[in-house]
Automatic annotation (TrEMBL):
SUPFAM superfamilies tied to this protein: Calponin-homology domain, CH-domain, Spectrin repeat
One Pfam short name: Spectrin_SYNE1
InterPro entries noted in UniProt: Actinin_actin-bd_CS, CH_dom, CH_dom_sf, CH_SYNE1_rpt2, LINC-complex_assoc, Spectrin_SYNE1
Residue ranges of domain Calponin-homology (CH) in the record: 1-86, 112-217
Designated name of the protein: Calponin-homology (CH) domain-containing protein
Length: 1091
């Protein structure tokens, strides 16, 4: 059974009796089916009697009010039923004697004292302030002053109490209910008529007033309890004891209730009453807690305050658990929704555990954020579901308290608001700790990298760690990205957050992080250079120390050996000195940057190496002089050998014969430039060799010196000559190289064009179809249309060749004879082509003209022959034959043949081997002769067919004459009106058939006239006038018939109708005559009896 509208559905009593059956477990009699008002009264009376038997007092509740659906009466009745069956008459003292009273639990106390608590709250809110006595929730509130006073306590600006005292009760109540609904969010559960009666229903009024208590608990706070004491310590202690006692005596017992919800409405009202008490006492607790946390408490410290703090947290927690239990106990999906809201509130109020490590903190926040997103994926579906649930009435057969639904709505709204805020906060805090982890890790790494260093492996390990952390880990890039993400998340978090302290905290955090990172990043960037420099010094130091140690040990042994061995050994003395310098520089740097005892070890090694090296330097002074002289001799010999080798190569290059080809010349130029680039180095080596030789003058004999200097002078003269000739040769080769390239490319293009032209000229033929011939001619024209361009190209290349010829004296080793022959050959070929092409091109033009003329004539002759064979238009055929034979055709064809004959003979005179044009001319002459023979044959055939044409003409004339006579006869007969109907119809049929062929007769008339004129022109018949008159007479008669054909057709239709009418009249007359005769016969009387 589903209740849609309580006030309407309860009228027939069926719903009420069903409710009582369920609550009591007893079977009650009820009327069912199609009920009328009398049945309503019966059911309602049964229900009220049942309640009275249960000793439930029903004040101002009667059957007629319920049957009329009065809201205040119905609500009062339902309230009484709920209270009775929920608390088992606890609120009503037992009047029967001898009945043992059960112990009253804390929850029962709350229920019993709910009215007292509500009265106490109301008195605290208005009685002491406005002097309005409220002793009950009935008559005390009838004038409406109390309702307006409660509103004035909460919002003084909404009510003018002086004005209220002057107004009527109904106006005051209506005004209070409207203002509370519009401005304070208090649902309008009552109407003024429900209160302004002799005995208002207290339960309904209590339900309405309880909304003020729930929403504005502080309005009814007893100011006497909060009176400030002059002794702050005593006041704090009194508040502490009062709260702790309340928890231990009432709150703790209530909050241990874990039984399932039996009466949702009653338990929710119990929850509201307890929650109001918690909120009222919460003001005292939070003020005391604020003092303790800020250190302003006189009596309590954090430790001594802890018992009350834990107790209060438990009260708040259990109060919320109570509300969660109510939500989760709702039926069906609504209960699951309530449980989801419970979990959502718990998640939103969950505080994150603080961890010392920023990285661990970031990981923890990331997990919490993921869990948050996973859980709140259901937020939108839950929201949609709740929007579809009615805010009042039953859900799946269970009555849901409207205040509880309002509470769920408020909690869902709060969850929907706080969930995105928490998600943005978690996103910000996660990336905040990631950023802090970057910074802290970087600072810790920096401390490791900037200490005094150890040996090379340890420093290399530090550098590897640095590169792995900074470069491989993309430290700066990742930090910047994390910082930007953190900044965006912070902006998103604070965008809809008006908490200035939170914003200031964020700004301070970013300022601190920026300052620390700026300092750390600068130092980190300098660390790599320092580490690399230390490693480089270690490498130089170790390598140089090893080399010096080995060399010093060898030196002590070599000093006792021969001079050659000493000279060989001390050849690398300069390198050894460089190593000694490196050892000292790198060693001193390492002493400053390494830790002990590494620095002391380096100092000891340097002292030992420097001492031994100094001793060695002092012992080498004598050997040095001998070593210098020997080195000078060797350098002089090497310098002479090198100079001789280079001069020999340069002279051979200058004398080499080079083919006149672009690629070869380019390679030759590269070789010249290579030697040219070596000239400064060779000149410097020559000077060095000369200086070395001069330094040996004092150490060598005079003959040796003279020979050495003479050799140097000869080589110097050759070098000076080559130094001058090589750049000149390079200049000339560079000058001629572009011309050679241009000649090669141009001659190649010319050669290709000439080859194509010769191939085309050799392949000249008119075999195949006319289209193929025209394609070859067109290709011929395209190729040889370039002759002017090719001539200009040849002239240009000849000019280039002349420039190359002028360079021959300066390029004696360049072989230009191959180029000479090729240029001469191409010039000859081009001249030959230039003579032949015009002849053949002109022949092609005459040939194309001739072929077009002959082909048209052949087609015309073929068509004439076909017409003559079919004997059509003989005269026209003969005229066309004469036109072909006597027109410009004969003259033009002969002229073309004469031109082709002349051109073929001219080509043979120029080149007796080329008889292509002569052969072509022969073919065309033979074709012309065949064409003439065909023309004569056609003319002869046309003359032979003339008598046959006369015969055909007379046949057609006879047929035409018969047709005209027939038409004239049919017109005469149709125009006469004495034909019978059958005759008329037959004649009309013939006439209509003749009309269909009238166009053919007209064509025959035109054919006869046309052919007669042609035959008269080619015939010597003297009877021309008779033939013309005969045909003219027939044509005139035929033309006279044509205008009357349509008229005759129309008249024949009228005549046909007249004939039909005539036949009908005649038939009617015959019938009438027959009837008259029959009647006459009946008039004769056979006897007296008939008379």
């Amino acid at each position: 059974m589903k209740v849609e509208n309580l006030f309407a559905d309860i009228k027939d009593g069926v719903v009420l009796l069903s409710l009582l059956e369920v609550l009591s477990g007893e079977k009650l009699a009820m009327e069912r089916g199609k009920l009328k008002r009398v049945h309503y009264f019966s059911n309602l009376s049964t229900a009220l009697k049942f309640l009275e038997n249960k000793r439930i007092k029903l004040v101002n509740i009667n059957v007629s009010d319920i049957a009329d659906g009065k809201s205040s009466i119905v609500l009062g009745l339902i309230w009484i039923i709920i209270l009775f069956f929920q608390i088992k008459e606890v609120m009503v003292p037992q009047e029967t004697e001898g009945t043992e009273q059960l112990p009253i639990t804390a929850l029962d106390k709350i229920r019993v004292n709910a009215k007292k608590a509500l009265l106490s709250w109301t008195e605290n809110a208005i009685t002491k302030r406005y002097g309005i006595e409220v002793k009950d929730f009935g008559r005390s509130l009838r004038d409406g002053l109390a309702f307006n006073a409660i509103i004035h306590t909460i919002r003084p600006d909404l009510v003018d109490m002086d004005q209220v005292r002057k107004q009527s009760a109904r106006v005051n109540i209506e005004s209070a209910f409207s203002i509370a609904e519009d401005h304070l969010g208090i649902a309008r559960l009552l109407d003024p008529g429900d209160v302004d009666v002799a005995k208002p229903d207290e339960k309904s009024v209590m339900t309405y007033v309880a909304q003020f208590l729930k929403t504005y608990p502080e309005a009814g706070e007893d100011q006497s309890l909060r009176k400030k004491s002059q002794n702050f310590a005593e006041q704090e202690l009194a508040d502490y004891k009062e709260l702790l006692t309340w928890y231990q005596t009432e709150a703790e017992e209530v909050l241990t209730i874990v039984e399932p919800v039996e009466d949702m409405h009653q338990e929710y009202m119990d929850y509201l009453a307890f929650k109001a008490e918690v909120d009222r006492r919460g003001h005292i607790y939070y003020k005391l807690d604020e003092k303790v946390r800020t250190g302003k408490s006189v009596k309590f410290t954090s430790e001594t305050f802890k018992p009350l703090e834990e107790s209060w947290k438990k009260v708040v927690r259990q109060t919320r658990v109570w509300l969660w239990k109510l939500g989760a106990s709702l039926p069906g999906k609504l209960g699951k929704f309530g449980d989801w809201v419970n979990q959502a509130e718990e998640i939103l109020e969950l505080e994150e555990e603080f961890l010392e490590s920023p990285n661990e903190m970031a990981m923890q926040l990331g997990k919490i954020l993921q869990d948050h997103r996973t859980f709140f994926e259901e937020m939108e579906p839950q929201k949609i579901f709740f929007q579809q649930v009615p805010r009042a009435g039953k859900y799946e057969g269970t009555q849901i308290p409207a205040p509880l639904m309002d509470n769920l709505h408020q909690r869902l709204t709060r969850v929907c608001t706080m969930a995105p805020q928490r998600e943005r906060r978690l996103e910000y805090e996660e990336i905040q700790y990631q950023l802090l982890a970057f910074l802290v890790t970087s600072e810790n790494k920096l401390k490791i990298w900037t200490v005094k260093y150890g040996h090379q492996p340890k420093v290399e390990a530090l550098l590897a760690d640095y590169k792995n952390f900074v470069h491989s880990g993309n430290l700066f890039k990742n930090y910047d990205q994390t910082y930007e993400t953190c900044k965006r998340n912070a902006d998103a978090y604070t965008k809809n957050n008006d908490n200035k302290k939170e914003t200031e905290k964020m700004n301070a955090y970013f300022d601190e992080v920026n300052g620390r990172w700026k300092k750390v990043s600068v130092e980190i960037k300098s660390v790599q250079f320092m580490l690399e420099e230390v490693i480089d010094c270690w490498r130089k130091y170790n390598a140089s120390v090893d080399v010096l140690t080995v060399w010093l040990n060898d030196d002590e042994r070599v000093m006792s050996r021969s001079a050659d061995e000493q000279q060989q050994f001390f050849a690398d003395l300069a390198k050894i000195k460089e190593k000694h310098k490196i050892v000292n520089e790198s060693g001193n740097f390492l002493i400053e940057t390494t830790e002990e005892p590494v620095a002391t070890e380096i100092k000891t090694t340097l002292l030992m190496v420097n001492r031994r090296f100094q001793e060695l330097v002092e012992s080498l002074q004598h050997f040095k002089k001998e070593e210098v002289v020997g080195k000078a001799r060797k350098d002089n010999n090497d310098g002479l050998l090198k100079l001789t080798h280079w001069l020999k190569g340069a002279e051979e290059l200058m004398a080499r014969e080079v083919a006149c080809k672009h690629a070869v010349l380019r390679d030759y130029l590269n070789d010249l430039e290579t030697f040219s680039a070596q000239i400064p180095a060779i000149e410097n080596d020559s000077k060095t060799t000369t200086e070395t030789a001069q330094s040996l003058v004092k150490e060598c004999s005079q003959d040796v010196v003279n020979e050495m200097l003479q050799s140097l002078n000869i080589q110097k003269e050759v070098f000076v000559r080559l130094r001058k000739e090589i750049p000149e040769k390079i200049k000339h080769v560079k000058a001629v190289l572009p011309d050679i390239e241009s000649l090669e490319n141009g001659l190649m293009d010319l050669d290709a064009w000439l080859s194509r032209g010769e191939a085309l000229l050799q392949s000249h033929t008119l075999d195949g179809t006319r289209e193929e011939t025209e394609q070859r001619i067109e290709k011929h024209k395209v190729v040889f249309s370039e002759i002017t361009y090719q001539k200009s190209l040849l002239d240009c290349k000849n000019a280039v060749y002349q420039r190359v010829e002028q360079m021959k004296p300066k390029l004696k080793n360049i072989n230009l004879y191959v180029l000479d022959g090729r240029v001469e050959e191409l010039n000859n070929c081009f001249q030959q082509m230039n003579l032949v092409v015009p002849i053949k091109l002109e022949f092609v033009v005459q040939e194309e003209k001739f072929l077009g003329l002959v082909e048209k004539a052949e087609i015309a002759i073929y068509q004439l022959q076909q017409k003559l064979q079919s004997r059509e238009n003989v005269e026209e055929t003969m005229q066309k034959q004469v036109m072909i034979y006597q027109g410009d055709f004969q003259k033009t064809g002969v002229k073309c043949l004469d031109e082709m004959d002349f051109l073929s003979r001219t080509l043979l005179q120029h080149d007796p081997r080329d008889n292509t044009l002569h052969n072509q001319y022969g073919k065309h002459r033979a074709r012309w002769d065949r064409l003439k023979e065909g023309t004569d044959t056609t003319l002869q055939l046309s003359l032979q067919q003339l008598p046959e044409t006369w015969k055909e003409y007379h046949i057609k004339l006879g047929e035409f004459s018969n047709c005209v006579q027939t038409l004239e006869e049919m017109q005469r007969q149709l125009q006469r009106g004495y034909l019978t109907s059958e005759e008329n119809k037959d004649m009309q049929t013939k006439f209509q058939r003749a009309l269909k062929h009238i166009d053919k007769f007209s064509q025959d008339s035109k054919w006869l006239q046309s052919n007669l004129e042609e035959l008269m022109a080619d015939s010597d018949n003297t009877n021309k006038t008779n033939e013309r008159n005969r045909l003219g007479d027939m044509v005139t008669r035929f033309n006279n018939l044509l205008p009357n054909m349509e008229t005759t057709s129309n008249q024949s239709a009228v005549v046909s109708k007249a004939c039909d009418f005539r036949d009908g009249v005649k038939s009617m007359i015959d019938d009438l005559l027959k009837q008259a005769m029959d009647q006459d016969n009946q008039l004769f009387i056979d006897g007296l009896d008939e008379a």
